[in-house]
């Protein structure tokens, strides 16, 4: 770790179940589970309900395990950021050693059992996802480059591809584009958050784009990535998982997202922070709806297809 002198608060009581559950980053896990579920259901291969349940369970555990390992390594950063100061390790509820052992054990368990329950391509993709998030992003990119969230975002983009692989044993154009949708969504989503929470990253010494290149550059990057994201989102509608429902949702949401990104881009730096933050918070909230709505539309298309409904 970058700060070897970091020590969490003294552990006064034995860690409770809720403390270990918090290590799994349950809010992030919700997105992992949902996108993996959509990838599994949208795949053209029928999956036995029990096998499907096991696949989603192990993918969720793998995602949670990477969150625990992230908290183990980033305990020093978490301690100085307001947004993360109450996490189990800096709050003194779980030791770093406990978090590491918990995350590593859960990682091995999830990958092995996903491979056994479905196929080894899915198990291998899950293992690579955990490795990428913990080693490539957390240990390397996050503290070394303002492109941390761009490259590191790949870790959060793998779940729909893993779900698809669990069902089919293959990687397809559709699953790659679902990966790309999440991958390209991640930078504008997190940069919008960083714009109104910059002091957190300053205090922690994390080279987020807002810290290294400033707010105007970050706004330009948000607009650029949003344009690329819109193109990928529309392209996904013309694959085997797309259709009129998906395309309708994608066209409306990407029009709104592009407008939001342009509103951020043209903000006047001389305006009050409160005015700027209002636009950035609005865009950030829309970004939360954006991804769930796109994958929800894919799920609807999958349901219509499986029930033989043609639109």
TrEMBL record:
Subcellular location: Cell membrane
GO biological process: heme O biosynthetic process
Transmembrane segments: 28-44, 50-73, 99-117, 123-141, 148-167, 173-196, 222-238, 244-262, 283-304
Record field: catalytic activity: heme b + (2E,6E)-farnesyl diphosphate + H2O = Fe(II)-heme o + diphosphate
Keyword Transmembrane among record annotations: yes
Pathway this chain belongs to: Porphyrin-containing compound metabolism; heme O biosynthesis; heme O from protoheme: step 1/1
Stated family: Belongs to the UbiA prenyltransferase family. Protoheme IX farnesyltransferase subfamily.
HAMAP family: CyoE_CtaB
The name this protein goes by in its record: Protoheme IX farnesyltransferase
Organism: Pelagimonas phthalicica
């Amino acid at each position: 770790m970058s700060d070897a002198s970091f020590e969490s608060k003294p552990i006064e009581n034995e860690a409770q179940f809720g403390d270990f559950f918090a290590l799994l980053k349950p809010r992030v896990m919700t997105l992992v589970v949902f996108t993996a579920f959509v990838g599994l259901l949208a795949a053209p291969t029928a999956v036995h309900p029990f096998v499907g349940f096991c696949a989603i369970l192990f993918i969720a555990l793998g995602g949670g395990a990477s969150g625990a390992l992230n908290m183990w390594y980033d305990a020093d950063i978490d301690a100085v950021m307001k947004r993360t100061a109450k996490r189990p390790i800096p709050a003194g509820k779980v030791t770093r050693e406990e978090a590491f052992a918990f995350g590593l054990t859960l990682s091995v368990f999830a990958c092995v059992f996903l491979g056994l329950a479905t196929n080894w391509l899915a198990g291998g993709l899950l293992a690579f996802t955990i490795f990428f998030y913990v080693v490539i992003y957390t240990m390397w990119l996050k503290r070394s480059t303002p492109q941390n969230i761009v490259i590191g975002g790949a870790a959060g983009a793998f779940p729909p591809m893993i779900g698809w692989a669990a069902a089919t044993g293959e990687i397809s154009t559709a699953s790659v584009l679902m990966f790309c949708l999440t991958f390209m969504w991640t930078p504008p989503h997190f940069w919008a958050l960083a714009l109104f929470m910059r002091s957190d990253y300053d205090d922690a010494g994390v080279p987020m784009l807002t810290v290294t290149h400033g707010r105007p550059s970050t706004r330009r990057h948000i607009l650029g990535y949003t344009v690329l994201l819109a193109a990928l989102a529309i392209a996904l509608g013309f694959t085997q998982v797309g259709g009129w429902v998906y395309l309708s949702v994608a066209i409306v949401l990407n029009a709104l997202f592009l407008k939001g990104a342009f509103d951020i881009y043209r903000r006047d730096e001389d305006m009050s922070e409160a005015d700027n933050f209002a636009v950035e918070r609005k865009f950030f909230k829309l970004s939360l709806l954006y991804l769930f709505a796109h994958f929800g539309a894919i799920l609807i298309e999958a349901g219509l297809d499986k029930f033989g409904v043609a639109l």
